[in-house]
Amino acid sequence: MKNISTSIIKNKLPRYALILLMLVYSYFLWLMIKITLQYWPIQTDVAFLSIKQDYIHLLHYRIAFFVHVFSAIFVLLAGYTQFSNSIRTKYPQWHRHLGWLYVVVTLLFAGPSGFIIAIYANGGSSSQIAFCLLAFLWMLFTAIALLKIIKKQVPSHKAWMIRSFALALSAITLRAWKYILVAVFHPKPMDVYQIVAWLGWTLNLVIAEIIILNKIK
Questions:
Q1: Cα separation, 105 vs 165, whole angstroms
Q2: Which of 64, 132, 157, 187 has its CA 20 to 30 A from that of 13?
Q3: If you average pLDDT over every residue of the chain, what do you get?
């Protein structure tokens, strides 16, 4: 009886953990949608743009910013179901279609526009390098994942998509770290930017590698 109970607990815990994770992700996704809607209809003096007035007059920055804001949310929505084994098994076409949405939006819209606005990131050269590297690696990992699935190298495709999505999640994690750092340490605004510019995605990659080592075969 004890062995049976232990087996049930081991089987259910990951399921409960996954449900909790999806609920947390759903909450942050809802917050990201709310943030995105602040800029619709197109406004150049609200939210984050209120502190970017030195650059908003630049046409290429303005275009890149709105392309990034309105396209990146689709990446987060597409990634919402891409790592579900049940959806991948029962609804392979949905997995394929949403995968293409993720790849196209990342490589053609969210990634390139993110690189452009990263050049003008707050916090000086340290933050600018961090965000430019983030955008470059995000596009690179996504492109590699695409090539792997074209070659039918499924395990490798999964690994690179996990890395790619870990970087996509920086949109959420860097904001979470910002709130934590401000609440606990009360640093100067530019110090916060310099920290979260790196912390917001490097830790994600570390976690991604742990997941890959333990789950991908």
A1: 13
A2: 157
A3: 89
